[in-house]
Amino acid sequence: MHGHNKLSGYTVIVGMMICWQQAAFAQLIQIANPLSTINEVGEVVTMTDNVKVYGSFHFAESCTFDSERNLIIVMNAGNRIEEGDDDGYVSLINPDGSAHTIRWIGVNRDGLELHDPIGSAVRNGLLYTVDSGVVRLFDQATGQPREAFPVHGSTFLNGIGVTEDGTIYASNTRPEGRLYKVTADGQSSLLVDGEPLNEPNGVAIDPNGNVVVVNVGDNAVLTFNSDGELIQTEYAHEAGNDGVVILNDGTKYVSSVRFGSVSRIRPGQEAEVIAAGIPSAASMCYDSTQHQLVIPMNNNNSLAFVELDH
């Protein structure tokens, strides 16, 4: 979309250019406003509070929670038909599951490269996602692209966790099970190669800054320190795991994308199932304001919500 179009309902963000990590310059992208229309006199009218719209997903693989805006950020992997399709997008969802902004990032492709965003995380005002061998960063408030860090040697990046200092940990699910480390300035290295990783998927950072990884290939919940040393092994109720969430008290929640359960692992205790029967329970996030888990359901194009005990 170019120029001024009264029917768009979108605001074109203009400003300073942002330098990509590869030293190329990326133009600012167009970001969508919340759902709205143009009325008869040509004014933008934001949808009233008594209307709820649900949906907006296309192969929703992961989500993360923006506590500043009280919104759920959902990654959509697009059509996934041809390799190189540049059709991924990001939705903003209200905590009740209704749509806030259907295509917040990805309203058009001008200046945007986003193919199949999978795992995601937020930290210190940045949104991180893994996308076809690259870790992409966006401004969490504006949605504008920031750096893009290639992860050399990766074949299928999947989960992602980010520490307070901006260090990125990303899983490589197949064909080799690996865990990569990417520094805040984009230098990638192989941290863990092979066992005990078994089709590693979800990644999260625990309150002590350790890296927790769940496997698709078994039910292990693995905790590594920053040097890649395995320091703890726990077990979810079922295998086939995708998502992992860790609360401040160390309680872990693990979602099984293959078998549909959500396990809770309290420190020092065995796993217990708190929810089940969720088709394709993928890389979930924790809504710390409403105290609920939000679980993308991949090709079901839906989100599941699980309220947690207080």
> What is the CATH superfamily classification?
TolB, C-terminal domain
- Give me the side-by-side strand order of the main sheet: 5-6-7-8
Silhouette: globular
| Average pLDDT | 88
Helix count equals: 0
Q: Which spans have pLDDT < 50 for at least 5 consecutive residues?
A: 1-25
Distance between the termini: 47 Å
CATH architecture: 6 Propeller
Record field, number of beta strands: 27
What is the percent of helical residues? under 10%
Radius of gyration: 19 Å
Describe this protein with a few key phrases:
single chain; 310 residues; mainly beta; Neuraminidase; four-stranded antiparallel β-sheet
List the helices and strands and how they pair.
Layout (H helix, E strand, L loop, with lengths): L17 E2 L5 E2 L9 E3 L5 E3 L13 E7 L4 E6 L12 E5 L5 E7 L11 E7 L2 E6 L2 E6 L5 E6 L6 E6 L5 E5 L5 E5 L5 E6 L6 E6 L5 E5 L4 E5 L5 E6 L5 E6 L5 E5 L5 E4 L6 E4 L9 E3 L4 E5 L6 E5 L3
Antiparallel strand pairs: 1-2, 3-4, 5-6, 6-7, 7-8, 9-10, 10-11, 11-12, 13-14, 14-15, 15-16, 17-18, 18-19, 19-20, 21-22, 22-23, 23-24, 25-26, 26-27
How does this model look, in words?
This protein is mainly β and 310 residues long. The chain has a single domain (59-307), classed as 6 Propeller (Neuraminidase). It contains no helices and 27 strands. The strands form 8 sheets. A 4-stranded antiparallel sheet has the order 5-6-7-8, with no helix packed on it. Strand 21 (241-246) and strand 22 (252-256) form a beta hairpin. 44% of the residues are buried. Residues 1-25 have low confidence and may be disordered.
